[in-house]
Design goal:
The complex is a heterodimer. By secondary structure, chain A is an alpha/beta fold. Chain A has 11 helices and 12 strands. The longest helix of chain A is centred in the middle third of the chain and has 21 residues. The longest helix of chain B is centred in the middle third of the chain and has 21 residues. The N and C termini of chain B lie far apart (45 Å). Classes of the chains: A alpha/beta, B alpha/beta.
Chain lengths: 307, 305
């Protein structure tokens, strides 16, 4: 049974989880900025959009100032995962830790800093932060959870049930890899192309009429990813091309996070997403020339503003 | 001899101003910029930098004013070839039309409006500083040859090359000008869009080994398409790319396509990577990297709309 949850990293996903879970369990928030923690303690966390309520949470920037939780959800961006995991080293020995980052390899980064039991999750929900204490719930798609180190499907189900009881969507899987890889291929393709073209994820990503239309490239990137998954023995849960078409047909011009990062000249999650896919391809000996090109181009684009 | 330069941007101005210094050549300059045309007619066309030249061509924005010419020299951006040659073709009914534009497909577009066509490639570069004044950045050679499907007589190709050379623009007349043209196209298609997509200068693209390898992948596809057509490159684009990356050559140079992207101007990608893809398909050569780069830069252009 999970009675208390610590959400580490209160971006849009972390804020949505923390606020909802606070309705069904004790929730603490590990924030990075003191002002953020203070605002959460004083004002609580407001959700608008698909839900409308304000939750009270306990927040701090020092894990030692927070009560020991049953479950820790690491909801930071992939680029912040290493330092955040290092801050948790030696803390919360009785807790299970769940990663929810994009791409592959988050579990290994966290696992290197402690021997907590680990759960893996991928999330398809989305939100928009309107300040430190207000998050808008935008897309009410599910979070999928599977066992990783020292956990079972039953543990994943307990976490999923808690999230469902809090008003969000979640599902437990015996093996998360099919879902994780579907999202990986989708993300590597859509985020990479969006970061390079600076197009939001819109109809251009499905257009295949003219020879130079972007849909051809998106389809070929997806096909390369599928070949890697097949060689790695992963049967995909969803076809990433169908995920792409569904998302573009929603008529909602979503800005993928890598595009937002590039526009704000921040480090991107390229290594966890595209880098993982390219490295997995090399492991199983499948050539991915187009993903390699996209990976190198985004990396160089990041270098153009970060060096 | 009467020559009309069609498209009097930076490179067109280099030809127009230099040719206009010859006593035996009458030069017309057709351009859509009224300010540039007015300045040329008022004060002449002035080049500074690599050469100090003032030429006095007759400039106009009205193609119907053009007299019958022996030669047309098309120097517009590749996406403007069609309207430019359509407007001016009447002046070349009895003459020959040469192109020194970037990319592939310009000769075919011109040949739809002109009977005798000259394929060409040029390396000089510059920029318009103000109307009527052009900064001449780089000197370089030009090569002309008959365009095979609708060739100009070789004697005419030589006559135009001789005039350009005499005017200070060293020019060779060759039987097959495809080698220099494809060398330049492969160079541009393999480096310009990489700079445009990443924001890096030519030198910084080349000093990242992973990115330089991507450039080589693009070069290899371009070479395969050239080879499938029996084209012999006059130099290896790889060597030119490494040469240009040197600090004293063009390390800090922002490719024109990067400048276009930064200014949200349409690029020449359709005629560079797009051209390699189209010729590759005609000759059964796969060009997946050029296709990917073409789609990405088109996506960049679409992001401005």
């Amino acid at each position: 049974v999970i009675r208390s949850v610590c959400v580490a990293g209160a971006g849009s996903i972390g804020s949505l989880l923390a606020a909802h879970l606070a309705r069904v369990s004790a929730v603490s928030v590990l924030a990075r900025r003191e002002a953020h923690a203070q605002a959460l303690n004083e004002q609580g966390l407001r959700v608008s959009g698909r839900a409308d309520f304000t939750a009270s949470v306990v927040a701090a920037t020092d894990p030692d100032a927070l009560p020991e939780p049953d479950l820790v959800i690491l909801a930071c961006k992939g680029t912040d995962l290493e330092p955040l995991s290092a801050r948790l080293a030696g803390r919360f020995p009785g807790a299970t830790v769940m990663t929810i980052q994009n791409g592959l390899g988050a579990e290994e980064i966290v696992g290197a800093h402690g021997d907590w039991p680990l759960l893996s999750a991928v999330t398809f929900m989305s939100g928009t932060r309107h300040g430190d204490t207000h998050v808008e719930y935008v897309l009410d798609t599910a979070t999928w959870i599977g066992p990783h180190r020292g956990t079972t499907e039953a543990d994943a189900r307990i976490a999923a049930d808690l999230i469902v009881s809090s008003g969000l969507k979640a599902e437990a899987f015996a093996d998360l890899r099919p879902a994780q890889w579907s999202k990986l291929i989708f993300n590597a393709t859509v985020n990479g192309v969006a970061a390079l073209t600076e197009l939001p994820h819109d109809f251009h990503f499905g257009q295949e009429e003219r020879l130079s239309d972007l849909g051809h490239l998106v389809r070929e990137l997806v096909d390369e990813g599928k070949a890697v998954a097949a060689a790695a023995g992963v049967e995909l849960h969803d076809d990433p091309w169908e995920m792409n078409m569904l998302a573009t047909q929603r008529g909602f011009r979503h800005s993928p996070s890598m595009l937002e990062d590039v526009e704000a000249r921040r480090p991107t999650e390229l290594e966890l997403i595209n880098g993982s896919l390219v490295r997995e391809a090399a492991k199983v000996g499948v050539p991915v020339p187009l993903h390699t090109a996209v990976y190198r181009l985004v990396k160089a684009k990041e270098a153009s503003y970060s060096e | 001899m009467r020559i009309c330069v069609v498209g009097c941007g930076a490179v067109g101005s280099l030809f127009a101003a230099n040719l206009a210094t010859l006593d035996d050549v009458e030069v017309w300059a057709y351009d859509v910029s009224q300010a540039h045309v007015d300045a040329i007619n008022a004060n002449g066309l002035r080049l500074t930098g690599a050469g100090e030249v003032v030429g006095r061509p007759c400039a106009t924005t009205d193609a119907t004013e053009l007299p019958a010419c022996d030669f047309g020299l098309v120097v517009t951006k590749a996406m403007h070839t069609e309207p430019a040659i359509r407007a001016t073709a009447h002046a070349f009914a009895d003459g020959c039309v040469a192109t020194v534009q970037n990319g592939l497909g310009n000769e075919e577009t011109i040949a739809a409006h002109a009977e005798r066509v000259i394929r060409g490639t040029t390396f000089p570069a510059g920029k318009i500083v103000e109307p009527g004044v052009v900064q001449w950045d780089v000197k370089g050679d030009t090569t002309f040859g008959p365009f095979e499907p609708k060739p100009a007589p070789f004697a005419e190709v030589e006559r135009l090359a001789e005039a350009c050379t005499r005017a200070g623009m060293p020019t060779h007349a060759v039987a097959d000008a495809r080698g220099p043209q494809w060398r330049k196209v492969i160079f541009n298609a393999s480096t310009n869009p990489i700079g445009a997509l990443t924001g890096l200068t030519h030198g910084r693209v080349c000093e990242r080994p992973d990115l330089r390898a991507l450039v080589s992948g693009l070069v290899a596809e371009g070479k395969a398409v050239a080879a499938a057509q029996g084209i012999v490159l006059d130099a290896d684009p790889e060597e030119l790319i490494d040469h240009a990356a040197k600090p004293e050559v063009a390390y800090g140079h922002k490719a024109s396509m990067l400048q276009d992207v930064e200014a949200h101007r349409q690029t020449e990608i359709d005629y560079l990577n797009g051209g390699i893809v189209r010729f590759g398909r005609e000759h059964g050569v796969a060009t997946p990297l050029n296709e990917a780069i073409w789609a990405l830069v088109k996506g960049v252009e679409q992001s401005w709309q």
